[in-house]
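Let us practice reading a record.
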Amino acid sequence: MHFEILVEGKTELTALSILMPKIVGAYGEPHTWKIHKHRGVGQLPADPQLRPNARDMTLLHQLPAKLRAYAKIIDEQRVVVVLLDLDDKNSAEFLQQLESLLNYCQTPFEARFQFAIEELEAWYLGDVAALQKFNPKIKSQVLEQYQQDSICGTWEKLAEADEPTVLNNKKRSTLVMDKKKEWAKKIPLYMEVIDNKSPSFQDFVRCLQSYI
């Protein structure tokens, strides 16, 4: 099976590049994948049938057109997986919105919509052992307070446990992005698929493994 995976940005691409072999096996043995990053999440266009603005490369803005393009090329060995942070959206309503985009596609094809709840950092917080290997000095008491996949400011909770100075620095936006890049590059190296406690991560794993 070949997986076409659409993600919001660079950090998701980095993390999934490490996690995919753990989920579906080594690349090409026999499964393959391509991960497409975007410039943030953006918003769904008011009219999904219109040509997207080429200057707006956010995932949701481009998504209707990309789905229509995939529908034009039938491939029974391909599944399109769209991964989004849920943030504070209602999961059922958001999923319905996304699935309705398939009504604008001329031919049915395999497409799945998956969420990281609340955001990608929930997946890291689902594996405390991986976090402890990433940072042996990580604050266990903070990790113990976290309720898995809760809407609580997930990346802030991880920062509080890992490097709380990021939260109070005047250059916060730059430091946060640097920290998120570091997490995406290093934490997935230690993550174990089976033992991860994040329900949304396990849902993503089940989605992919259902095709192999």
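A brief commentary: The mean pLDDT is 96.
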